[in-house]
Design brief:
mainly alpha, 3-stranded antiparallel sheet, 14 helices, 9 strands, 7% strand, rod-shaped
C-alpha cells in the first residue's frame, strides 16, 4: 500500500490486517447507497430549506468538477501481476464502486484513485477470520455445496491476493463517500485535517454572518404605516416613471425632427460647399487674371515711365545746339569747330572760312524754315564750302532778275587786289541783310526779344563785314558778331519750339 498523496509506503493498521466480519463489511458497503424506500421518504418529507436553495444546490451539483485533491496515480512497479484485473472483477461482483457518482468502475488502489482517507485507530469489530471469510464470499450459487468446497474457499481467502482485494475494495468504498482518495499516511492526514478545520472555521463564520443578517432582517420588518408609505412612494415613483417615459417619447419625436433638420442642414451644407468650391475656383481664376493684368499694367507703367523720362530728356535736348555748335576760339568765332575770320599772326585757310560760312548760311536757312519766315529779295542756297545767296531784283513791271552771290572765296588772288573779292563782299552784305530781316521779324513777334547787335547795311555793331586792306581784325570781329546774332536767333527758334510742344 502507498499513500495516495505523497506515495509513501504504508503499513495497514492491525484492525485492517485481520479479516473483517461480514456484518462490518456489509455495513461499510451498504451505507454508501440509500435504499429506494429511504430515498422516497427523504424526498417526500418537506425540506428544511427553501426550494430556491435546493435548485441552486442541484445546479451547482451538476456543474461541480472532479474532486479537489484528486490526482492520477499509476500502479507501482512491484505490484503483483493480475492484481488490477482481479480487483476489477471483485468490484463488478460487489457493485460497490458504482454506488456513488464520485467513483468510476476503473478506480482501484493502484490505478488513479481519488485521494480520500479514513483515519482508523482500532478495529471496532473482531470476528474470527474463518467466519468473516465464510460470511462475505459465499456465493448464491455455491450455498448448497459441501464442507469440502467451503474449506477450499477459506484457504484461498487467506492468501495475500485476497487480502489486497479486500483492502482495495474497502478503500474504494471509503473514497466513494468523500472527495479524498484512500489510503493516506499520518502526516498527510494531519495536513488534511488542518485544511478541513480551517474550512470549517470559515464556513462557521459565514454561517454566523448569515444568522446575524437574518436576525437583522427579521428585526427590520416594516410596519403597516411604513408599508403604506412605501406604497405611496412606489406609486409616486411609478407616476414619475410614466412622466419620464412620456417625456422620453416626446424627446424621441423631437429627435426625429432634429435628425430631419440635421439631414436638411447637411444637404444645405453640401450645397454651400459646392458653391464655396465654385467661388474659390472663380476667385482663383480672377486672381490669376488680375495678377496677369497687374503685371501688364506694371510693365506698361514701367515702359511709360521710361518713355516719359526719355521724352523729357529729348525735350531738354536742343538739336539745333548739337547741329550748330557756335562758340569761340580766342579772338575767332567758331561754328562746329570751324573758325570764321583771319588775323595776320594767325592766318586761317580759306577752305575753313568757306566751310564756316556754309554752316552759318545753313543755320540761317534752318531757323527761317523753323519759324516759317521768308526772306525778301533773297533765296539762300546752303551748299557747304560753295554756298550761295541768290538776289532777286524786280523793277517796275520788268522781268525779275536773279543774281547769284558767292559766299566763298578761292584765295588764289592776293588781298591787295580788293576788287577781286567784290562778289564775296556782296554775298556777306546780303547775308547781313537776311540776318537783319529775320531779327526784325523776331522782334516784331516778341517785344522782349532784341538782337544783340544792330545791323546797318554792311556793318554789324561797329564793324564792317567787307574785306579791306589790312583790316583783318575788323573783319574777324564782324564775323564774330554775325555768329553771335545767328546763335541768338537759333536760341529763339529752340525756345519757340519748346513753347509749342
Amino acid at each position: 500500500m502507498f499513500c495516495q498523496k505523497c506515495r509513501v509506503p504504508l503499513k495497514l493498521h492491525a484492525s485492517l490486517e485481520d479479516q473483517l466480519s461480514p456484518a462490518t463489511f456489509d455495513l461499510l458497503v451498504g451505507s454508501s447507497t440509500l435504499s429506494p424506500i429511504l430515498k422516497q421518504n427523504l424526498s417526500s418529507s418537506k425540506p428544511p430549506y427553501p426550494a430556491e436553495r435546493r435548485e441552486i444546490y442541484e445546479k451547482a451539483k451538476q456543474t461541480t468538477p472532479s474532486a479537489v485533491f484528486k490526482r492520477g496515480v499509476l500502479a507501482p512497479r512491484f505490484a503483483p501481476p493480475g492484481l488490477q484485473e482481479s480487483h476489477y472483477a471483485a468490484g463488478d461482483v460487489d457493485g460497490a464502486s458504482q454506488h456513488s457518482p464520485l467513483t468510476t468502475p476503473t478506480r482501484s488502489l493502484y490505478q488513479n484513485p481519488t485521494e480520500s482517507f479514513v483515519y482508523l485507530t482500532e478495529s471496532q469489530v473482531a470476528v474470527p477470520p474463518t467466519q468473516a471469510h465464510r460470511g462475505v464470499y459465499v456465493g448464491e450459487n455455491e450455498q448448497g455445496n459441501g464442507n469440502a468446497a467451503v474449506d477450499e474457499e477459506d484457504d484461498s481467502k487467506t492468501t495475500l491476493s485476497h487480502q489486497m482485494k479486500v483492502s482495495a475494495k474497502l478503500f474504494d468504498v471509503l473514497s466513494s463517500k468523500s472527495d479524498i482518495d484512500h489510503p493516506v499516511c499520518m502526516e498527510c492526514t494531519e495536513l488534511l485535517v488542518d485544511g478541513l478545520s480551517k474550512r470549517l472555521a470559515n464556513v462557521t463564520r459565514e454561517r454566523d454572518t448569515y444568522v446575524e443578517f437574518l436576525k437583522k432582517v427579521n428585526a427590520e420588518v416594516p410596519t403597516r404605516e411604513e408599508k403604506l408609505q412605501a406604497e405611496k412612494e412606489y406609486q409616486a415613483i411609478k407616476a414619475e416613471e410614466a412622466l419620464a417615459i412620456q417625456s422620453l417619447r416626446d424627446i424621441e419625436l423631437e429627435k426625429v425632427g432634429v435628425l430631419e433638420e440635421l439631414r436638411r442642414l447637411e444637404e444645405e451644407a453640401k450645397q454651400l460647399d459646392l458653391e464655396e468650391e465654385n467661388f474659390w475656383r472663380e476667385r482663383n481664376e480672377f486672381a490669376l487674371k488680375l495678377e496677369e493684368f497687374q503685371n501688364d499694367r506694371d510693365s506698361i507703367n514701367l515702359q511709360y515711365d521710361h518713355d516719359s523720362r526719355q521724352l523729357e530728356r529729348l525735350q531738354r535736348t536742343n538739336v539745333y545746339n548739337d547741329t550748330f555748335c557756335i562758340g569761340h576760339d580766342g579772338y575767332f568765332g567758331t561754328i562746329n569747330g570751324l573758325r570764321l575770320g583771319r588775323l595776320p599772326n594767325q592766318p586761317v585757310g580759306w577752305p575753313e572760312i568757306n566751310a564756316a560760312w556754309g554752316q552759318t548760311l545753313l543755320l540761317l536757312a534752318t531757323v527761317a524754315e523753323k519759324i516759317k519766315f521768308t526772306f525778301e529779295g533773297y533765296r539762300l542756297k546752303p551748299m557747304g564750302s560753295t554756298s550761295r545767296i541768290e538776289k532777286v531784283e524786280s523793277h517796275h513791271g520788268e522781268q525779275t532778275r536773279v543774281s547769284s552771290l558767292e559766299l566763298f572765296s578761292s584765295g588764289e588772288l592776293p588781298l591787295a587786289r580788293m576788287f577781286v573779292h567784290r562778289k564775296f563782299d556782296h554775298a556777306m552784305v546780303a547775308f547781313l541783310d537776311c540776318l537783319r530781316q529775320m531779327g526784325e521779324f523776331v522782334e516784331s513777334q516778341d517785344s522782349n526779344v532784341k538782337m544783340p547787335y544792330t545791323i546797318n547795311k554792311d556793318k554789324i555793331g561797329d564793324a564792317c563785314i567787307r574785306l579791306a586792306f589790312k583790316q583783318d581784325e575788323a573783319w574777324t570781329k564782324a564775323c564774330k558778331y554775325t555768329l553771335t546774332c545767328a546763335k541768338f536767333l537759333l536760341a529763339y527758334a529752340s525756345n519757340t519750339r519748346a513753347l509749342h510742344v
